[in-house]
Structure formats: C-alpha cells, structure tokens
Amino acid sequence: MSAWRALLGRELRLALRHPADSLAAVMFFVLVAALFPFGIGPAPEALARLAPGALLASALLAALLPLDRLFGADAEDGTLDQLLLSGIGPAAVALAKAAAHWLTTGLPLLLATPIAAAMLNLAPGAWPAAMAALGLATGFLSLLGVAGAALTLGARRGGVLLPLLVLPLAIPAVIFGAAGIEAAAAGLPARPYLLLLGALLAGALPLAPLAAGAALRVE
Amino acid sequence: MLEADNLACLRGERAIFAGLSFTLGLGEAVLLVGANGAGKSSLLRLLAGLLTPAEGRLLWDGEDALADRAGHAARLRYLSHQDSLKLALTARENLAFFARLWGGTPEAALAELGLAPLAELPARILSSGQKRRLALARLALAPAALWLLDEPTVGLDAASVARLGTLLARHRAAGGMVLAATHLPLPLPGARELRL
C-alpha cells in the first residue's frame, strides 16, 4: 500500500513538472466546446439543447489526449520493467496510472466545466449536475483508457488505435451523463442518471486495472 | 542457488538460444558474452521473470522460480540497457521511489556512486555516464540476492568502474550473485564466462 502511494505520488510529481500536458487537455476541452456556438449559430435555445451532449463529448475527447503516453514513456525509458518487478503488481500499477490520469486530467476539466457550460448556454442550475456527470464520466474514461493504453502499448499506430478502442466503450457514459445534465436543466432530478454513471465507474474500477495488468504482463 | 535447466527463448518465430543450462551459487558471478543479438539481454529479462521461457525451467533453491513472479522479483535487481530514469525528477527523487520500495536511503546510495553533489539536479541535465551511475545507484540502496546487469559499464569513466567494482565485491562477499552481460571488461574477479 505504501509502495502504491509512492508510485501515485511519483506520477503526480511528474505531471506537476510537465503542467503543459494537463493545460493542453483543458484548453482542448474549452476550445472544442467553443466551436459549437460557431457551427450552430448563436441561437440560445438551440445551444442549450445541445449543451449536455457537447460537454460530455468534448470532455471525453480531451481526456483521451494524454492517454497514449500513459505507458509509452515508461516502456521507452525502461521504467515499466522496474514497475513490473517492483512487487506492486501490474493491476495495482495500472490503477495508480488511472488515478493519476484522472487527478491530472479529469479534475482540471471539472474545474473548467463552468466556462464551457457558459459558452454552451447551459442553465446555471444544471452546472453542479454537469460537473458531477463529467467527474464520473472522466473517471470511467481514465479506467477504460488505462486498459486501452496497456493493450495498444507497442502496437504500431497505437495512438490512433487507442481512441478507436476506448471511445465505443465510453458510449454508456455519454448517454447517462448527457441525460443527467438534461434532466437537471429541465428542473428534474439528475440523481438516477448519476447513480447509473456511478455504477459504470464501480464496475470498471476492478475490471479495467485487471485487464490492463494482464496486458502489461503479456508485453 | 539459481539453476537454469535447458532454457530456450523465442522472439517472434526465431529461437534465440535453446538448451541453455547453468548454475549460479552464493557469491558467484557469471559474465554473459556473445555477439550482438546472441540473446544476452533476452536471457537477463527471462531470468528476471519479464519473459517466459519457451522451454526449460528456472529454479531457485530447487523450486520453480517463476511460479511466484512477485516473490522472484523481490530477490533480484535488474539493471536494463535503459537507465529507467525520469528526466524531470532530480537524482534524489529518482532514487527515493526505489528507496520506498526496497529500503535504504537515496543520500547514501548517491554518495556510493559519487553523485552526492548532483543530488538536486534534474536527471535531464546529467551526462549519459552520470545517468548510468544514477541507474547503478539503485543497486546500492538495499541488498538483494541476485543482480542482473545489462552492460553496466557503458559510458562509465575509470573511477566509476572502480566504484562499481567496490559495490560488486561487497555484494558477492555477502553471498550475492551476479549475472552481467557485457562487451567490456568488468571488475568481477573469478567470474565464469557463459558464451551465448
């Protein structure tokens, strides 16, 4: 457990030394959200109708950005071998990577959600639900992503393969997340949808690291 | 005691080596020599449990070593061809993670390899020889029964090779085993040669 915390701490420290990666994901999220008003036109009702889905899609795409370097950098500099020999266990290493990915990408996206939501003319009453939905959905994506990154490690064009592998699996999170935000915008309870998102996250929490660990072992 | 029994290794469809058997007792050292591509690095990875042998068995004190890979990993140190360093972290921070895993203090290990004055510098600005010394400093953290070294002296100056010699001598005096792949002379008196 102490070794696992040391690994997570090291991952976070490394992310802090390269803040540009987290910043790039946040900027990407805000910029993609800003493209919608240009494409659809500034009609407030049309934008508000589109906002929940646009928020989810932009956030998931932004969270995908740093995924292909998740294990790639460690495999190139030999760190991955040391991690596999560290006794932490491949699945626990994958879980630490997913946690670090969420803390350095998902969490900053959450903080930028009000900006993107305002640009999409989402009713301010639905912002807390939007942040909760994005928090759960990006957590789900971090877990799926760590499994995808482990599977595509060493594959030629792995960076292209990874989104093709991960995004279809993230569709349920988009459906429940967008439905939750839409319900909140209409003044209805978002809780049932958020609970379904939470169930997705709870299912992926043990399964995705196990899959990633098995994939790392095979390398 | 480490015992390799009829080991074979496949990469792709090609057999790199087959029918390899040797034993390594307490305090003994083996130099792996052979042409490029002869399978020295693959053998080291296989002995570390990072590759699965296509054939044969690896025994530790008479028991299958790879049955419990985590247990096997805990008794060895593997120095790969790469230095396994994070360039954004300082020399001390690079070692601190491994000190949390294995015990020992980064400061003592850095001093052992003559890196104490560079402790607070990011690994990025170290020279390639200094990076190699920082990778070697991991060996100085805490004792382990088996050292698997892949070209440990690449890029090292004479003084650093002598420091490595001190480390190796102390490790072997305490009953540690060493398996090193190399093209350069290593400070390992009395080491046997294993030609691949």
From TrEMBL, chain A:
Belongs to the CcmB/CycW/HelB family. Its main location: membrane. The keyword ATP-binding does not apply. InterPro entries: Cyt_c_biogenesis_CcmB, Cyt_c_CcmB_bac. The chain crosses the membrane at residues 20-40, 46-65, 102-123, 129-153, 160-181, 193-216. It comes from the Bacteria. The lineage of its organism: Bacteria, Pseudomonadati, Pseudomonadota, Alphaproteobacteria, Acetobacterales. Pfam families: CcmB (PF03379). This is Heme exporter protein B. It is found in: Cell inner membrane. Required for the export of heme to the periplasm for the biogenesis of c-type cytochromes. It is a multi-pass membrane protein. Keywords: Cell inner membrane, Cell membrane, Cytochrome c-type biogenesis, Membrane, Transmembrane, Transmembrane helix, Transport.
Automatic annotation (TrEMBL), chain B:
Keywords: ATP-binding, Cytochrome c-type biogenesis, Membrane, Nucleotide-binding, Translocase, Transmembrane, Transmembrane helix, Transport. The keyword ATP-binding applies. InterPro entries: AAA+_ATPase, ABC_transporter-like_ATP-bd, ABC_transporter-like_CS, ABC_transptr_haem_export_CcmA, P-loop_NTPase. Residues 2-194 form the ABC transporter domain. The keyword Translocase applies. GO terms for molecular function: ATP binding. The chain crosses the membrane at residues 15-35. This is Heme ABC exporter ATP-binding protein CcmA. It comes from Paeniroseomonas aquatica. The gene is ccmA.
